[in-house]
Amino acid sequence: MTARTRSRPRSTAPRRRRSPRSSGPRFLDPTILTRPEVIGSAFAVAALAALFLLVDVPAAIADGRDWLLRTFGLGIFIVAGLSALGGVALSRGAYIQGLTFARRAGGSVALGLFVWGALGLNETDWSVGAVNFQRVTLGGEIGQALVAGLLAKIAWLSLFVIAAGLLAPGLTRAFAINAPRWAQYAWDERWPHRIAAGLHGFFALFFRHQRALKSTATAAEAPVIGSTLRKRLEPAPAAEPPVVYRPSAEPGTSALEAAVARPPAVPVTATEFEDEPEEPQQLGLSFGGHSGWHLPAMELLTAPQVSTNRKHDNAARAQLIVDTLASFGVDATVVEVNEGPTVTQFGVEPGWEVRYKDVPLKDELGKAMTSPDGRPRTERVEMGRTRVRVNKITALQNDLALALAAPSLRIEAPVPGRAIVGIEVPNDSASVVTMRHVMETKEFSELAKKSKLAIALGKGVSGAPVVADLAKMPHLLIAGATGSGKSVCMNAIIGGIMMNATPEEVRFVMIDPKRVELTPYSNIPFMAFSEVIVDMDKVVGTLQAVVSEMEARYKKFAAVAVRNIEGYNRHPRVLKKLPYWVVIIDELADLMMAAPYEVEKLLCRIAQLARATGIHLVVATQRPSVDVVTGLIKANFPTRIAFSVTSMTDSRTILDMGGAEKLLGRGDMLYMPTDAAKPLRIQGVYVSDGEIERLVQFWTDDRFVAIHPEKADALLEEALIARNGDTDIDVEEDDPIYEKAKALTLEHQRVSPSLFQRRLRVGYVKAQRIVEMLEEAGIVGPQEEGESRLVLTASASSED
């Protein structure tokens, strides 16, 4: 048998049978219904059928069309759309997913009903056939029924919530969790107040403009007001070039020649150097959370005062400066004038030192040329030029003071970040910088949003407000002679914090050996302890109590694995936030005289470690000598303020440089921040005794008595007992304190040791002993929640 005729081996694989369905015609195959082109054609037919309702139709079916539109309105498109979506889902087998399909289907139906109800609220004047949608609304009778009545509207609004929860559960859950936080943030950022203030200002300006146009005053009044409105809306014009003051004569000219060559003086009005007044921001009453505290209004502080008794002429003084320097052979120009509340800074730019050489003139033949009198003729040729050295200007400080008739001058050479030398000349009349004026500025408002320890320091030599954050200092050392403004600065720091924070956010620990400066604050709820420490025997114990609080906070940080107080207060496991502590010491010299070694050791320990725990130091002294402000204390207090001192030695002790001995006093200070190479000259804010009394009266009002925070007297008493061995905490039954405690107990339904601390002025340990004695006598019940006890006698009398 050949290969051609050899039969192929029979395959052992089973033969494939034809499906009986494949033998029929192709158009009868049921799977054709799930093809995309068939489904798309069905959608097109449904859309055309829905659009058919909005055009003219034959009279035979017009009544049916009108009934559909009257009943369903435009909701017929919603029904058609939901039906089409249902058909697509069923054709793709989405019903196999079970709960997911049911959730999406229910969400789609709820969303469709919500849109249908929204159409039912629209009564537009639009007619199709015999149907007027102004009567039945765009949603028809069904859509009108969905929003008929208050309960129906509430149910209709709930459909949107249900649709959002079913169609987008993750996004809805995130919005529900974060919405209260966003609302609180918006309230804290004062968005409602800003929006309301902006709308109020816009409409006030608009209606004022309309009234001006309709008024019957003068014909020129309306164009003036219209131009004012246009000026506010148009961009500001470009700034004019600065005025440069050149010397009247060449440097090195004699005084007689300069007087002859000087042009007549041109009178300059004072308004040429007036600064534009800032529009203060109104910081009204603001709330400090939901705990019952609210911040005091800005009206408690004294309004800014405008100084009108100006006598100095800055243009004349600038010209006098350049002329005086030129008379001593120093070429310089005044390129800017910055007027502050106390001093005016003149920005002097050094000129050039030009070297000349007399060269004899020669004719064409090379012979020397002579004048008619026989002398050789010469020509002055410039050989080179160099900048005037800064020390030539600073060496003329006393000469400038004599020429300007100023009591003292301060030359800042150079001004940090500028290529000029600043000559600071005292003004004839100093203007008062109020704390309210600085707190109403934009700089303080932005800082107060970020930190509860914002401080309004004053105004610089250019009139710009200077603010600082005590949390970033993180400790402050203040020095100055008596009457220089040191105590006013401390009151400004305390008052600024009391205007910006609540007692739940900031606490004060005050040590006042002089017994007169800080005692007005003894009753405010900001106090961490029940009293201002005035006894020298308690000073070391108080500092030890602060160290104990610092160590306790570090243990709390370790328990939740955070590094500082900001992270601890933001931690989700923390239920009670920690407040900041500000330790204020009015006179460091008295403390160093009483216990120098212990005070220095405790202050340095707090300054080195307490920043992360939210504990900050503000230490003041009027004797900045090396035995008071030691090198170890200076190293731990990078931020310093120096008021007027008596000698350059004291200035170098506090600032490591001179300059404080030339200050004018009455709030004139040098502020050395941590990030500056040179101190800044500032006129400090002034806080009167009346402002302090109003602030204290606000915070000691009776409406805050029930929410006073707990005192930390237990720490203080433990520290005092550990140091002095004080064991005077026993209370006898015949003790007058115990009798007062019983009478106070009968006035309340619940009592706690903190109540006796505040009302009886006793320590925590003694107050706890009084509560135990009242429990033994059957006047109060056992401890139930926290530290409060139920008064049994009061409850029994109320039942009778």
Brief characterization of the structure:
With 800 residues, the chain is α+β, with helices and mostly antiparallel strands. The protein is 43% helix and 13% strand.
Strands, helices and their partners?
Blueprint lengths: L35 H16 L7 H14 L2 H17 L7 H22 L6 E2 L2 E2 H4 L3 H7 L3 H18 L1 H20 L2 H24 L6 H13 L21 H7 L52 H14 L4 E8 L3 E8 L1 E9 L17 E10 L2 H5 L2 H8 L5 E3 L8 E6 L8 H5 L2 H9 L3 E7 L4 E5 L6 E4 L6 H15 L5 E6 L27 H22 L4 H6 L9 E6 L2 H7 L1 H14 L5 E7 L9 H5 L3 E4 L5 H8 L12 E5 L7 E5 L4 H11 L13 H12 L11 H10 L4 E2 L1 H8 L3 H13 L3 E4 L5 E3 H8 L1
Parallel strand pairs: 11-14, 11-15, 12-13, 13-14
Antiparallel strand pairs: 1-2, 3-4, 4-8, 5-6, 7-8, 9-10, 9-17, 15-16, 16-17, 18-20, 19-20
Helix pairs in contact: 1-3, 2-6, 3-4, 4-6, 4-7, 7-8, 9-10, 12-14, 18-21, 18-25, 20-21, 27-28
Q: How would a textbook summarize the main sheet?
A: 9 strands, mixed
What do the pLDDT scores average to?
77
Q: Residue ranges: pLDDT <50 for 5 or more in a row?
A: 1-30, 213-234, 255-290, 795-800
From the alpha carbons, calculate the radius of gyration and give it in angstroms.
42 Å
CATH topology of the largest domain, anyone? Rossmann fold
Binned, the helix content reads 40-55%
Domain count: the total is 4
> Structural class, judged by helices and strands?
alpha+beta
CATH architecture heading of the largest domain: 3-Layer(aba) Sandwich
Large-scale geometry: flat
Q: Termini, distance in Å?
A: 130 Å
Strand tally is 20
Q: What fraction of residues sit in β-strands?
A: 5-15%
CATH superfamily of the largest domain: P-loop containing nucleotide triphosphate hydrolases
Strand order of the largest sheet: 10-9-17-16-15-11-14-13-12
Under CATH at level 1, the class of the largest domain stands as Alpha Beta
**Tally the helices: what do you get?**
29
